[in-house]
Structure formats: structure tokens, C-alpha cells
Amino acid sequence: MSTSKKFHSSIFHPTLRKWQEPNVNIEPENLMYPLFLIEKDDVIEEIPSMPGVSRFGVNQLIKHLEPLIKKGLKTVLLFGVIETLPKDSNGSSADSTENPVIRALPLLRKNFPDLVIATDVCLCPYTNHGHCGIFDEEGHMDNDQSIQRLAQISLAYAQAGAHIIAPSDMMDNRIRAIKEILRNYRLESRVAVLSYAVKFASSFYGPFRDAARSAPAYGDRKCYQLPLGSKGIAARAAERDVEEGADMLMVKPGMAYLDIVRQTKDMFPNIPLFIYQVSGEYAMLWHGAKNGAFNLNAIVMEALTSMRRAGADVLITYYTPLVLDLIQKQ
Ligand code: PBG
Ligand code: ZN
């Protein structure tokens, strides 16, 4: 059965409906805030590679979010970061009951009933090798096993309360596998899938791998993330994920890939398009401003406005708290 002609899963919440009504301003609906969640509920850890960004235990996260929600914050993207839970070949801590994301979801739903919660789904923070899939005995990525496992993890997050599943692994046909398991468990119309459809093998992810403790132990991600210079396979990847039923698409990173954002928006003008302004972009602007190259507020708004102009509907940015303040002052 095809999933691509269905849309209840794209419009079940007021914030998701807003994304179907594009304009070019930056309002709270256009911002998704990425957050790193740790095992220790009462702890905040600063992230040296991303000055101004922290990892939160769930109790601290709730405190951190309260004022932001008063300022209009609509949606967050959760990443789990583990320290004492085991890392193994199957990424079993990704959906264990002790996983910080699984534990936080019901609490966030209860504390913030209007907040739309997306969860990143990937294996790299949970595998002993730090790659985004599962390997067979010969040491090759096993795509079928990988997407089955990603679907299981997606189901666990959906059952724990995620509104949006956002797979960042770049395995082939994972959108179909995730849609299928959601359908089998009758969650299809209540959970959206935001595909990291067009994700390049970028050096801009450097600080994140430190933040999420997800750097590959060996090798790189060039056999599953997209080649930097390619427009063609970027188009094919977006097309494939739309056919498999993705509710929303993402291009990642942002600023160096705005031609791809425009290409993707022109191909699919009717699908909400997200940009991930990734960790390296965050750090670049922060360090540039810190060293006097430009004013931080001005440069952040310029970078984000150019993303809207290029065709992005939603901006995933670590600068969300800053931007919410700037919007309020306007
Ligand atoms: C893991 C993942 C990455 C990012 C989001 N999910 C890193 C990677 O693929 O190596 C990058 C986010 C950022 O740099 O801010 N699949
Ligand atoms: Zn990954």
C-alpha cells in the first residue's frame, strides 16, 4: 500500500498546519529548537565545541523550556546522549526504557501540552562503532537490518509521545519502513515523518559529534551521506523520500547549500521544507561575532532570512532562544 497520498499525519496539530501556509517572515512557527538530552535528570553540561549550548537532564530541560515557551517556542528536536548506558552493535540503548529521550517524552508532553516534539532517529549515538547503521559479519552496512532497527526505534519514540519522527541516518528506504511500522501500530495519522532527505557528508557537523558523542570510531559517512558537489543525487534523494511518504523534507547543512534548498523547494513546492543550520554553522557565526567580524544578532538574522528566501519553511537552529528574543523586541 502506498503512503504518499496521505496527509492526516501532516496536519494533525495547529503548528503542523502552519507549516502548510508559507510566508517569508521569521516567526516562532518557523523555528525548531534542537536539544541534547542526558541521563542525569538534574544536570546541565556545557558543550565546549558549541559555546552557549548545553546538554540537559530532563528536569533542567523543563526549566530551560518554560520561559522559551512563554516567548512562543512551538517545536523542539530531541537528541539523546548517553554516558553510562551501553553502546553495542545493535544500538540497543536507543529505545531502552532508560534512554533519556524515551523518559523525557511523557514528561514534556505533560508539562507542555501544546509543544510539538520531534525526535532525531539514528544509531550513531548508540552503536559501539559510531556509524548510523548496522554492520553484517563481513563488515558491510546491512541496509535491511538497519532500516528495521530504525523503524523499531521510531515506533518506541512515537509510543512514548513524539509527534514527529526525524530519521537522520540516510539509510535507503527508511521512510517507507518507518511509515509502515507506524501504520501497523495505528499511529500513522498522529505521527509525522520529517525526512533528513538531503543530508550532505559535511565537515560542518564537527562540533555536533562531540556534543552527541556520536563520532564514527573509524572511517567516515561518505558511503551513506551525499557527496558535497552533487545536485543530481540530492534531487533523487528528495524524490525518493517523497514517494515513500515523507510528510516534511530537510536540507542539511543550510548556508552552504542554499542552491539545493531552492532546487528542493522548486521540485516540491507543496511540502514543508526544513533547513538544519548545523553545529558548525552555529559555531562559525558565534566565533566570528566573538572575534569582532560582525554583530551576532545581525549575522544570525541575515543567515536565517537568506534560508527563508531560498525556500525553507522551518529553520532548525541552536540560535532559537536568541531569535525568539529578537522577534519579541521587534
Ligand atoms: C547524526 C546526526 C548528525 C547531525 C544530526 N544528526 C551528525 C552526523 O551525521 O554526523 C548533525 C547536526 C549538527 O551538526 O548540528 N546522524
Ligand atoms: Zn547518525
Q: How would you summarize this macromolecular structure in one to three sentences?
A:
The protein has helices at 14-18, 58-70, 100-111, 143-160, 174-184, 206-211, 232-243, 258-267, 279-290, 296-310, 320-329; strands at residues 31-37, 44-46, 54-56, 75-80, 116-121, 164-167, 192-199, 248-252, 273-277, 314-317.
What does the overall shape look like?
globular
Helix run count: 11
Largest sheet: spatial strand order = 1-4-5-6-7-8-9-10
List low-confidence stretches: none
Instruction: Report the span from N to C terminus.
Output: 48 Å
Second rung of CATH, namely the architecture:
Alpha-Beta Barrel
Query: What does the main sheet amount to?
Result: 8 strands, parallel, barrel
Which strand-content bin applies to the residues? 15-25%
Return the domain count. Answer: 1
Q: Work out the radius of gyration.
A: 18 Å
Order of helices and strands: HEEEHEHEHEHEHHEHEHHEH
**What is the name of the CATH class?**
Alpha Beta
Fraction of helical residues: 25-40%
Mean pLDDT metric: 96
What does this structure look like?
This protein has 330 residues and is an alpha/beta fold. The protein has a single domain (3-329), classed as TIM Barrel. The chain is 38% helix and 15% strand. The chain contains 11 helices and 10 strands. It has helices at 14-18, 58-70, 100-111, 143-160, 174-184, 206-211, 232-243, 258-267, 279-290, 296-310, 320-329; strands spanning 31-37, 44-46, 54-56, 75-80, 116-121, 164-167, 192-199, 248-252, 273-277, 314-317. Strands 1-4-5-6-7-8-9-10 form an 8-stranded parallel barrel, surrounded by 7 helices. The protein is globular, with a radius of gyration of 18 Å. The mean pLDDT is 96. Zinc ion (ZN) binds next to loops.
